[in-house]
Amino acid sequence: MSRRISPNKTAGRMASLLALIIMLPVFGQAQPAPAQEPWVQVEMTLFTYENANLEAEVWSPEKLAIGFPDNLIALQQLADVLQLSDWSALTGSIAPQEPVAASASPAPAASPEPAAVREIGPRPYAPAESVTLPDLDREGFFALPPAAHDFVTTNRTLSQSSAHRIVYHNAWRQPLRRRSATPAIGLQGGREFAERAEVEGSVLVHAGNTRDRLVLEASLWLTQFSAGPAVSSAWSLPVLPAVLAQRQNQSGTPTEIYQINRIIEFRQSREMRLEQFHYLDHPAMGMLVQVTPWQVPPPPEPEIPVQESGQAVTQPVAP
User: Fold this and answer.
1) Which residues contact 66 (CB under 8 A, 6 or more apart)?
2) Which of 159, 171, 186, 280 could pair covalently with 43 via S-S, beta carbons 3.0-4.6 A apart?
3) For 37-75, b where at least 16 C-beta lie within 10 A, e where not — what string?
């Protein structure tokens, strides 16, 4: 015997079921992709004023506040990846061959390959030996090659002027994060004096308070040296961090001694907009900076070997 359910009761049950479904968490639905972290490309040129009257300024060692931050890194160089780990392979000498006496009809003979040439030449491929080149489009804090620079004309104009001397220029890409999550970049530029450089310090580029703003903090100093024995002086430089000291040339030759005559501090903080050319002025130095957005390309599709007609063919893997 069938039981009839009134239409009002059916409608009430459907409404209750619909409300329950709405209250339940939704599973299996595609969630919106997280917003991509913004990246920027930074290019910077630092130069000195060769005709500056520095005697008109008061530079006191008591007012000096210079130093390297704890979160310091050095821009990675492509040469660091490509250089040989053991240069002794290139120091072998090729032994001269014994002279062959002239004869009327010299018999052709295959001269043996010198051992030094065999050692220096390409080695057979070994699967365990692999070199991974840096991905400059997706890896941050790598010094970019000249093809990616935008200051070519600007730097040429500065170099052609006797009133200016470029002491540092570089370009790199980095994620734009808050200040506490961004490392400072250590730099050395200009003339070298033993293990120190004429210009040293650090720069920090981090996100600003608004979406279209960023902040550049520069903590640099210009040191004036003179050759001669070190004498007692009120001027002193901070200890060179390991990330910068390891890049110095360890030639093993006797180090010339220099003394510090004066240290000129360059400390500035500037709020900037993207895609604008900025100039930071100072009595002894000037800085040109431009920060542009950088769109990190998607990762390349991996390739898998596909056997086709007896030959291996690579095809991209479908996402």
Assistant:
1) 201, 219, 221, 237, 238, 263, 265
2) 171
3) ebbbbbbbbbbbbeebeeeeeebeeeebebebeeebebb
- Cα–Cα distance measured from residue 48 to residue 30, given in angstroms and rounded to the nearest whole number: 56
Which three-class secondary structure string do you get for 31-80? CCCCCCCCEEEEEEEEEEECCCCHHHCCCCHHHCCCCCCCCEEECECHHH
What is d(CA 98, CA 109) in angstroms, rounded to the nearest whole number? 14
> What is the percent of the chain with per-residue pLDDT over 70, rounded to a whole number?
65
CA–CA dist 127, 136 (Å, integer): 25
- Nearest residue to 267 (alpha-carbon basis) of 207, 196, 216, 191: 216
Token pair for 276: 């604008």
Instruction: Provide the whole-model pTM.
Output: 0.71
How long, in residues, is the chain?
319
Bigger pLDDT: 94 vs 58: 58
Closest residue by Cα to residue 256 from 228, 297, 284, 222 = 228
**CA atoms of 80 and 131, how far apart (whole Å):** 12
Strand partners, 305: 314
Tell me the one-letter amino acid at 205: V
Spatial contact of 120 and 92, defined as CB atoms under 8 Å apart: yes
- Report pLDDT for 28: 43
Q: What is the largest CA-CA distance in the chain?
A: 126
